[in-house]
Each structure stands twice: as structure tokens, then as C-alpha cells.
Specification:
The complex is a heterodimer of chains A (about 260) and B (about 325). Chain A is an alpha/beta fold and about 260 residues long. Chain A has 10 helices and 10 strands. Chain B has a single domain, classed as Orthogonal Bundle (ABC transporter involved in vitamin B12 uptake, BtuC). The N and C termini of chain B lie far apart (about 55 Å). The radius of gyration of chain B is 22 Å and the shape is globular. The chains are: A alpha/beta (about 260), B mainly alpha (about 325). Chains A and B meet through α2, α3, α4 and α5 of A and α7, α8 and α9 of B.
């Protein structure tokens, strides 16, 4: 049904995206779109180009050819740190917290792009600077509560479990008020209970109108969560559609899902 | 409101102390305040922004030399000399920071150490401008508004400098900028993903703390009324490093404690063991790095934690437990 949507409504458009690493063609002429409020899965076998595509969308690496448009504007040449201000944030597969800070301060770093202050206002301790700091603290607590880490707000990051660390990454990303959130294998390393909680949180994020794109290897988790799936193989898109359509696609079964037993209920 | 009263109280108390001290003690007190000022800035650069730079003390020298050259060689009035020195320090800091902040850890350390060495070479080879190996003397603080600021009054100037440096860094540390500095140090990749321009943050932190060191140098220039290359040599570069490590890296209170301890230690040790106090320094440093890497502040935290656990409140629990048994 999403395929009926015109590209004009797309939040992110990928056009002819190509990335070479020396002689290796990691991503080749990829076209795809991400729409506001949808949960989109990006899957494929190892080496299919998922992570490379993800890194280009997150601004961590530059395309060799082709372009990515976000809200109609090309992201070509935009530095990595400017992606958050545009509305694109990411999580990391291996949690990357700021270890010297509390949970609350970690999330406050996520608000960096929304700081309306100059250094002078901070140095002089103006009323505006104080008001912003208060606002930032309250806002951070809101996102910490949203992911269910409320009781740990003042805790040292190093005391969190791996699963809690993943939730912190999400709260920190949400604090940047993104329009698109990119998840790099969010279920990896989580327990079954944590996965259920994570899926709920991701649905809650999409329900706020934020587009969600995930790379995931846990197929039951992804197929239950995503509304649309894009399948890559050898750097090219081989299928796109609803989880049901994709799971029934012979090309996908052959290239990827064939390795696992697919239940056509 | 409450905060500003605390600053005012600190200003009054620290200034009052100057008027209670004799001229020799005032000299020691002034230099102690300057070391604290330097340690606070270096703590921000090294401990909070995580930049292993050895150029901090050179900017102290740069500030001192440039203000003196301004008033003697160029014959500028003091305000112009001060302004020009601040601008000069900022420009030099940017020239060093823009290429150097591309480097990390060991390489930044090497590059800034090279800068510190180059600075000394330039001072020695500067001919008439820097006064060569003998440095510059025979100048004094020009009168300001017809008044000559000297003695305890000049100590008050240094108290203001130290407290202002403390206040600026304290506020920056507890702001989005301080968090950006820590984030860029802890995990640059994640910081960038959250919108922190890591390079820009590093350049600002470096330039700002270097300019503060320069400012302290400008004030120092009129403490001894002489500047020479020896003062700004590597020995003091490393003394400054030891101060923040022994105090507890990344903690403003640690920088203050480290500066007080290491500056005053020779006054206590020299009469006892003469020049061997350098040996004691080295030994203490090795022991701190090995056994107490969080420095004096780490000890302080442990002591607080210990009191909290074994304090009067905590002692109730075991006795209650006994009654239950």
C-alpha cells in the first residue's frame, strides 16, 4: 500500500546511491524512500550493503555516486555533525554512551542542536542561559521516562546493563527531536523481554510521526515490527513491500530467507 | 542571587588576606593565585575537553611577553597593550589549534610540546624584541588613572583574575558547551551523531583556555617585573601537569588543591632536603598515577563515601540487626 504513495511525500529519498570501497561495489544504484511515521526495515544477507547504506544515510560516509535527499534537499557534502540538526539521528550497534556523564547529561547532549544560547550568555550566566538549562534538564527527564529509565536518571552510565544502554541511546536520539531515526541492529544482544519492550518503544516513536529505519538480523522481531521492508543483495535492491509480500518473494527466499524456515500462515 | 553573594564573599576574603600579609608573603600568595588560575584553565583543556596539550604554560609566557613588548618596545599605552596581547594570544591559539585539533592523544601531545619548545627558542633568539636569554626587565606597571597599583592592591587584581577564570570555566563546564566538550572526549563519533561539531568544540576549548592562560601571563608580567625564557621553560610546563593530575583530573576543586599543594610543597621541603624536592615530586607523581589516579579528589570522594557508610546514620543498622537476632 505504501508503494502507492507518491515520492513527493517522502521524507528521505535515495537516488542512484552507489558506494565503492576500492574495487568492491558495496552499494550500487540504490533507489528507495522513507516516509514520515513509517517503520521501514532494511534487510539482506551479510555483505549486502545494508550497513554501508545506513552509514551514508547517517552521514558517516559519503556516497561515491548518487545522492540522498532529505525533505527535498541534497545531503551531499553535509558534514556528519550537521545531520542531527537536519533531523536525522542514529543509534549505534555497539552502544556509545558518554561514559563520564550521568544518564540525564547523556540525554542532554542529544539536545545540543536546540541550544539557543551563545557562549557569552553562558559565561555571563544570563536568565536565558539558566532557563535553557532548566528546560534541558526537564526535557531530558521526559525522554528518559519515555524509554523507561526514569529511576536511573542520575545514575552513572557505567552502571547500566547492555539493554539499558540501548534504551539510553534511544532517549539521547529522541532528545534531538529527529524526523528520521536510524537504528543499527537494535535487537542485537537484547533478551527476549527487552526485545518486546524495544518494539513497543519503536512503535511509540513512529506513532509520533517520526520515520524509523532499522537494519536487523532478527527476522521474527523485524517482520512483526516493520510496516515495509527493503531487501538488498550484492548492493542492489531485490525486493520491497510489506513483510508478507517480501517473505513470499522467491528472490528474497532464494537470497536470504531461504536459510530460515518461513511460516506462510 | 545566592551564587553571586558567594563569589563576592570569596572576593572579599581572598582580598582581605592580601592586606594581612607582608610583602614577601604577598609575593608568594600572588604566584599561588596565578598557579591556581593556570591549573583551572589547564584542567578544563586537559581534564574536561580531554586534549593532551603541553602548550598551556607557553600561552602564559606569550601573554606576559606580549604585554611587556607592547609597553616597552612599541611604547603603547597599557589598555592597547593588553588588548593587542589578548588578540595575539587568540590568533596564535587558533593557528596552533586548527591543525593540532585534527590530532589526538599522543600526536597532539607531541605537536604542542614542539610548540612549547619552539616558543622558548624564539624567546632566546628574539634579539632586542624579547631581550634574548636575559629576557626583559626595567619596566613596571604604568599608572592607571594617575594611580600606581602595587603591593596588596595588585594582589586584589590577581584575586579578581582567579575568581573570574573560575567563574567562567565553572559556568561553561555546567552548560551545553561543557557537555559537548566531555562528549567529544568520551566518544567523538557519538558526539558528532548528536550534532556536536567535534573539531569546532575542540578549537574553541583550546583557544579559550589558552587565551585565559595568556591573560594570567599579562597579569604575571607585573608581579616580578621581569620576564625571561627560563620561567616559561618545560620544568613549569610539567609542574602544571602534575598539579592537575595530583589534584584529580577533570575536577576544578582538584586543580585548586593540586596547585596549592605543589606550589607550597617546596617551601616546606626545601629547608628540609634542599633541592632534592624534585625527587620527592617525581616519586609522588609515580605513586599517584599507580595507586590514586583520581588524585586528591579521589581520596576526598573515598573519605566522604567512607563517612557516609560508617557515619552515625549507618551505625544504627548493625545494632538493630543484632537486636533482631
Amino acid at each position: 500500500m505504501r508503494s502507492n504513495m507518491s515520492d513527493a511525500s517522502a521524507l528521505l529519498q535515495v537516488r542512484g546511491l552507489t558506494r565503492r570501497f576500492g574495487g568492491l561495489l558495496a552499494v550500487s544504484g540504490l533507489d528507495m524512500s522513507v516516509f514520515p511515521g513509517e517503520i521501514l526495515g532494511l534487510i539482506g544477507p551479510n555483505g549486502a550493503g545494508k550497513s554501508t547504506t545506513f552509514s551514508m544515510m547517517a552521514g558517516a560516509i559519503e556516497p561515491s555516486a548518487g545522492d540522498i535527499y532529505f525533505q527535498g534537499e541534497s545531503l551531499s557534502g553535509v558534514p556528519t555533525h550537521a545531520f542531527a540538526a537536519r533531523g536525522i539521528v542514529r543509534t549505534f550497534q555497539h552502544n556509545k554512551p558518554f561514559e563520564s556523564m550521568s544518564i540525564q547529561e547523556n540525554v542532554m547532549v542529544g539536545m545540543h542542536t536546540q541550544v539557543p544560547l551563545s557562549m557569552w550568555q553562558v559565561v555571563l550566566g544570563t536568565a536565558k542561559a539558566k532557563a535553557h538549562e532548566k528546560h534541558a534538564r526537564a526535557q531530558a527527564l521526559h525522554w528518559i521516562d519515555f524509554v523507561g529509565l526514569g529511576e536511573y536518571a542520575q545514575a552513572d552510565v557505567r552502571t547500566l546493563s547492555f539493554g539499558q544502554g540501548r534504551l539510553l541511546e534511544i532517549a539521547r536520539g529522541l532528545a534531538a527531536q529527529p524526523k528520521l531515526m536510524l537504528f543499527d541492529e537494535p535487537a542485537a544482544g537484547l533478551t527476549a523481554t527487552e526485545c518486546i519492550r524495544l518494539a513497543d518503544i519503536i512503535r511509540g516513536i513512529a506513532a509520533q510521526g517520526i520515520a524509523v529505519l532499522l537494519i536487523e538480523h532478527d527476522m521474527p522481531f523485524l517482520m512483526a515490527l516493520a510496516q515495509r521492508v527493503v531487501v538488498l543483495n550484492f548492493g542492489e535492491k531485490i525486493a520491497e513491500g510489506s513483510p508478507t509480500q517480501v517473505q513470499a518473494d522467491p528472490a528474497v527466499v532464494n537470497a536470504y530467507l531461504g536459510q530460515v524456515k518461513v511460516d506462510h500462515a | 542571587m545566592k551564587r553571586s553573594w558567594q563569589w563576592l564573599l570569596a572576593l572579599v576574603l581572598l582580598s582581605a588576606l592580601a592586606f594581612g600579609l607582608g610583602s614577601y608573603q604577598n609575593d608568594v600568595y600572588r604566584k599561588l593565585l596565578l598557579w591556581i588560575t593556570l591549573a583551572l584553565g589547564y584542567n578544563f583543556l586537559f581534564g574536561i575537553a580531554g586534549q593532551v596539550a603541553f602548550s598551556h604554560f607557553s600561552f602564559y609566557g606569550l601573554g606576559a611577553y606580549s604585554v611587556v613588548i607592547g609597553i616597552t618596545y612599541f611604547g603603547w599605552p597599557l589598555p592597547l597593550a593588553l588588548l593587542a596581547s589578548v588578540v595575539f594570544c587568540v590568533v596564535v591559539a587558533l593557528v596552533v589549534a586548527i591543525p593540532a585539533t585534527r590530532l589526538e592523544g599522543f600526536y597532539l601531545a607531541l605537536a604542542t610540546l614542539a610548540f612549547a619548545q619552539l616558543f622558548i627558542v624564539l624567546l632566546n633568539e628574539g634579539g632586542q624584541v624579547t631581550g634574548g636569554t636575559g629576557g626583559l626587565a626595567n619596566y613596571r606597571l604604568p599608572d592607571i588613572g594617575g594611580y600606581r597599583i602595587k603591593g596588596a592592591a595588585y594582589t586584589v587584581v590577581i584575586v579578581v583574575l582567579m575568581l573570574s577564570t573560575f567563574a567562567v570555566l565553572w559556568r561553561l563546564d555546567r552548560s551545553h558547551f561543557g557537555r559537548a566538550c566531555r562528549a567529544a572526549r568520551d566518544n567523538p563519533e557519538a558526539a558528532a551523531a548528536m550534532g556536536v561539531d567535534v573539531r569546532r568544540t575542540r578549537i574553541i576549548a583550546y583557544t579559550l583556555t589558552s587565551a585565559l592562560a595568556g591573560l594570567a601571563g599579562m597579569v604575571y608580567a607585573f608581579v616580578d617585573n621581569t620576564v625571561n625564557p627560563t620561567i616559561f621553560g618545560l620544568e613549569n610546563v610539567f609542574l602544571l601537569l602534575f598539579m592537575i593530575i595530583i589534584g584529580g583530573i577533570g575536577r576544578a576543586a582538584g586543580a585548586v588543591a593540586g596547585a596549592i599543594l605543589l606550589y607550597l610543597l617546596p617551601f616546606v621541603l626545601s629547608p628540609l632536603i634542599g633541592h632534592h624536592h624534585a625527587l620527592v615530586f617525581g616519586l609522588v607523581m609515580v605513586l599517584v598515577v599507580l595507586f590514586q589516579p583520581k588524585g586528591l579528589m579521589g581520596l576526598w570522594d573515598q573519605w566522604l563515601g567512607h563517612r557516609f557508610l560508617n557515619g552515625p546514620g549507618a551505625q544504627v543498622k548493625p545494632s538493630n540487626a543484632k537486636q533482631h537476632v
